[in-house]
Amino acid sequence: MDRLGVVGCGLMGAGIAEVGAKGGCSVIAVDVSDEVVAAAKERMTKSLAKAEAAGKLAEPAETILGRITFTSDMSALADREIVIEAIRETIEDKSALMSKLDSIVAPDTIIASNTSSIPVAQIAAASSHPERVLGMHFFNPVPVMQLVEVIACLVTDPAQADKAAEFGATMLNKKVIRAADRAGFVVNALLVPYLLAAIRALETGVATKEDIDQGMVYGTGMPMGPLTLCDMIGLDTMLLVAQSLYNEYLDPAVAPPSLLRRHVEAGLYGRKSGRGFYDYSK
Ligand code: 3HC
């Protein structure tokens, strides 16, 4: 498979399109918003320039970028062998997209959702060909993080899941792990309670944000502190992920803390909006 479609050109979608193009795929990247598309192009250009300067690219950045077509016309996906969606993390948005894709792509085109925490079965239920729907969960920043989780739900055709896993390993050059269809899969089910605990520590005055972050960086060797990581993931995404995990497990450890809700309500989404727990405006 080398004809990849990506729907949603935010942080994750742009990264997925970049790794697809780097792996040699022709990529059609779709987003409804021209603004998001322009930002995605800029982000990819910067990311590839950085990788090129570090000697990480086998081809010129321009050649890689040349494999990506950006459009707001969803029907451009008609000839794709695999479509990965990375749109907003709500079941309403993802279900609407599944039925739209049903009328555009071939019945055996793999549709992979980059859902962070919504069970794949819920998303597949909105497709008239649920057997080709599965999860491919990437990590931010996608061009740097090596992992993808592949999730087959109860109705996914195992052969399609195998094809998606092979595509992830060969064309996207990722380490692939398989996970069961439970909210959070492997990584977020372990990581998110830790991140939410850090927000609660800040909320209850255990320490300053700087000390919480430094504690985990210098005490445990994490590449970045948990509050910095929340800002990088996006606090709006963190809230949606926490809500999905809470819906699934009813575990207070994954209930969204008030401080997280307040940040999102105030439009403080983290690095992407210029301010989250930290200020990035400068
Ligand atoms: N293509 C290929 N390689 C690239 C690249 C690109 N576009 N851009 C950068 N790189 C390389 C760099 O050359 C560098 O390589 P080196 O280690 O060999 O020198 C490496 O990637 C790291 O890049 P940077 O130097 O730019 O970055 P830092 O060293 O400052 O590290 C970080 C930044 C990678 C973000 C690091 O702090 C980190 O690993 N943080 C944790 C991130 C994390 O946990 N992500 C998962 C979040 S959870 C998630 O996403 C799931 C979701 O569902 C919520």
The tally of domains stands at 2
SSE order? EHEHHEEHEHEEHEHHHHH
Mean pLDDT: 96
Oligomer: single chain
Low-confidence stretches: none
Largest beta-sheet details:
8 strands, mixed
Number of strands: 8
The side-by-side strand order for the widest beta sheet comes to 3-2-1-4-5-6-7-8
Percent of residues in beta strands = 5-15%
* Shape estimate: globular
Helix content: 40-55%
The CATH superfamily name of the largest domain is NAD(P)-binding Rossmann-like Domain
CA-based gyration radius: 19 Å
**CATH fold annotation of the largest domain:** Rossmann fold
Number of helices: 11
Q: Output the CATH class name of the largest domain.
A: Alpha Beta
Distance between the termini: 43 Å
Identify the CATH architecture of the largest domain.
3-Layer(aba) Sandwich
Backbone structural class? alpha/beta
Q: How is this structure best described in words?
A:
This protein has 282 residues and is an alpha/beta fold. It has two domains: 3-179, Rossmann fold (3-Layer(aba) Sandwich); 188-273, N-(1-d-carboxylethyl)-l-norvaline Dehydrogenase, domain 2 (Orthogonal Bundle), CATH 1.10.1040. It contains eleven helices and eight strands. Strand 5, helix 5 (120-124) and strand 6 (133-138) form a beta-alpha-beta unit. Helix 7 packs across helix 9 and helix 7 packs across helix 10 (235-249). The model has no long low-confidence stretch (mean pLDDT 96). The structure holds 3-hydroxybutanoyl-coenzyme A. 3-hydroxybutanoyl-coenzyme A is lined by residues 47-48, 50-51, 54, 56, 116, 139-141, 143-145, 188, 191, 223-224, 229, 233, 237, 241.
